[in-house]
């Protein structure tokens, strides 16, 4: 592994036991898409490594640069992990602003096109499903999600990383929603 995966400050406990179906699908990647993208991935030794990556454009960047950087980063992350079998991402249906919905749509288009090109399965997970899974409450706030992820032994730096960890735990423990 290179520095991309090794740099994460999270040194969590092993992945919770979830049966052979979930283990057969590893490695999995979970993403909380946005200008500050949260990510979590299982390593071959069944540990979750996570972090955040900023795709905030500089004042000299054209409109598509954040998506080109996202694609390049995604390719490096997957290469460092020796591939992934599936990508799960937070499926957002309501945004705070028009700009945030456009940015999310750009990340989603870039991600799904990359997955199609590389024949990697992908699945959006509704926000309420993630929150209900990790906190027991579908309308939990960001602090509750962070607290629930911390209660499981992880140390997310922010809500984006906490969301990515929660998505990954959901994918592992539910077999991608198939219970």
Report on this structure:
The longest helix is centred in the middle third of the chain and has 21 residues, at 98-118. The chain has helices at 3-6, 19-24, 65-80, 98-118, 127-135, 142-151, 159-174, and strands spanning 28-32, 36-42, 48-54, 86-91, 121-126. A hairpin with a 5-residue loop joins strand 2 (36-42) and strand 3 (48-54). By secondary structure, it is α/β, with parallel strands linked by helices. Helix 3 (65-80) crosses helix 4, helix 5 (127-135) crosses helix 7 and helix 6 (142-151) crosses helix 7. The protein has a single domain (3-174), classed as Nucleotidyltransferase, domain 5 (2-Layer Sandwich).
- Assign the CATH superfamily: Ribonuclease H-like superfamily/Ribonuclease H
Tell me the strand order in the biggest sheet: 3-2-1-4-5
CATH architecture: 2-Layer Sandwich
CATH fold-level assignment:
Nucleotidyltransferase, domain 5
- Binned strand content: 15-25%
Structural class: alpha/beta
Low-confidence stretches: 1-12, 18-24
**Total E-strand runs:** 5
Largest beta-sheet characterization: 5 strands, mixed
Radius of gyration: 15 Å
Characterize this entry briefly:
Helices cover 46% and strands 17% of the residues. It contains seven helices and five strands; from the N terminus they run H-H-E-E-E-H-E-H-E-H-H-H. Residues 1-12 and 18-24 have low confidence and may be disordered.
List the helices and strands and how they pair.
Layout: H1 3-6, H2 19-24, E1 28-32, E2 36-42, E3 48-54, H3 65-80, E4 86-91, H4 98-118, E5 121-126, H5 127-135, H6 142-151, H7 159-174
Parallel strand pairs: 1-4, 4-5
Antiparallel strand pairs: 1-2, 2-3
Helix pairs in contact: 3-4, 5-7, 6-7
């Amino acid at each position: 592994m290179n520095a991309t995966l090794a740099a994460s400050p999270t040194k969590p406990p092993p992945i919770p036991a979830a049966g052979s179906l979930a283990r057969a699908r590893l490695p999995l990647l979970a993403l909380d898409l946005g200008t500050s993208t949260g990510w979590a991935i299982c390593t071959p030794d069944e540990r979750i490594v996570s972090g955040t990556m900023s795709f905030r454009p500089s004042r000299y960047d054209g409109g598509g640069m954040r998506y080109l950087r996202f694609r390049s980063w995604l390719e490096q992350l997957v290469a460092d992990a020796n591939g992934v079998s599936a990508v799960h991402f937070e499926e957002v249906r309501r945004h705070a602003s028009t700009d945030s919905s456009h940015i999310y749509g750009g990340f989603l288009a870039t991600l799904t096109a990359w997955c199609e090109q590389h024949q990697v399965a992908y699945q959006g997970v509704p926000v309420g499903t993630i929150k209900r899974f990790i906190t027991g409450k579908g309308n939990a706030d960001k602090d509750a999600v962070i607290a629930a992820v911390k209660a499981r032994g992880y140390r997310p730096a922010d809500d984006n990383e906490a969301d990515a960890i929660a998505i990954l735990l959901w994918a592992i423990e539910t077999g991608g929603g198939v219970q």
